[in-house]
Amino acid sequence: MLSRFSLCRFSVRRLSLPAILLVCCLPLAARGELRVVTDFEGGSAKVLALDPISRTIRIAPAGQAERGWPCWWYLRVEGLRRDETLTLEVQPSEALLVGPGKNRGKPLVPAWALPTRASFSTDGKSWRQTEPGRALEAGMVYSFTADAETLWIAWGPPFTPADSANLVRSLAKACRGAEEFELCKSNEGRPCPALRLKDGDRRDEERPAIWLQARQHAWESGSSWVARGLGEWLAGDDPAARRLRETCEITLVPIMDIDSTATGNGGKEALPQDHNRDWTDKPHHAEVAAAQKELLRYSAEKRLALFIDLHNPGPTDRQPFFYRCPDETLAEIGVRNVDRFLTICRGELAGPLALAPEPRTSGAGYDPLWKQMSKNWVAANAPPHAVSLTLETAWNTPDSSTDGYRTVGAQLGMAIEKYLRADPTR
Asked: Which fold has domain 161-419?
């Protein structure tokens, strides 16, 4: 939601008479006019109150329920005084869910919108975590010591479509054999940036194909930071990364749900279709259709070796974990390869966000639309030896930072290279 909220225009009516008199008697420069701005890519906040005396702002997520879970919030606060304390109180959205999930007609469970630590930045690029917030009966309070006149504050470290474009462009420019391309235009006409990596003289038909994607649910910003760390490792100077580029063809899509990410909506259980329940013969979303086209081509060529969909899980999950397909839906070689890949990942994803010992399975008991989820659709349409998984990286921990996420991405890259040293078709 795009909006601008300033002290002078809206908040005087919220103050007591003594406070109003005090504000009116103070010069504007002395008291600092607090302004909340969300009219930028990914911005989303509904301002409920703004107190210029206590320097407190109260907000709720502003996402539209029909465009997914209203849990994401991201705002810019202007007019701060250096070294002053700013208090941000976040309340969960009261919007009723309208998607097909079991909580249809109810508000979203508050914990999804109330991370223990918020993210903040003085330049909108480099992100830090706050100290743990203070829980209220219905909400969370975060405190900031202003070290600049402007602060960007968000549910988690934002990663926008512009960030995605900048990432693939910079990696393509820096890495031989890396190519920036547009997967498609979204349903609302936005470009979906992607990166392809392959180097050396090996013929395409001899290269195993790897497909890596993130952010089918727009609020799961940490998954794009994992994708960034993965892309940086894949395009980097590590000898293992160079070997992978020389032997395989790798595709990386940092954001799948481009539209909801751009507009500051949640994406999960959006209408008319959740991206990760859209993997059918007639997908609604252009990004899903474009990914399917490429994956089916790799499958027809018997080259698809690995598909990984990057997500973030629930607020109580403290470790990353994989979702795997039900074993009964896979060939024997597929089960064996999944087990081998997961064993390698347990060794490589060693921390600070260490992989949980056991994966979870998402089949018929997980969701009635389980066959329309990306990894299950891919497994059903891929060669028998292909591995198809979802990686969920914990977001509500002290290590769920940009550095923590990027480390997970790099570690995942190392696991992929180690797995593909052996021929997955045997």
From this structure: Aminopeptidase (3.40.630)
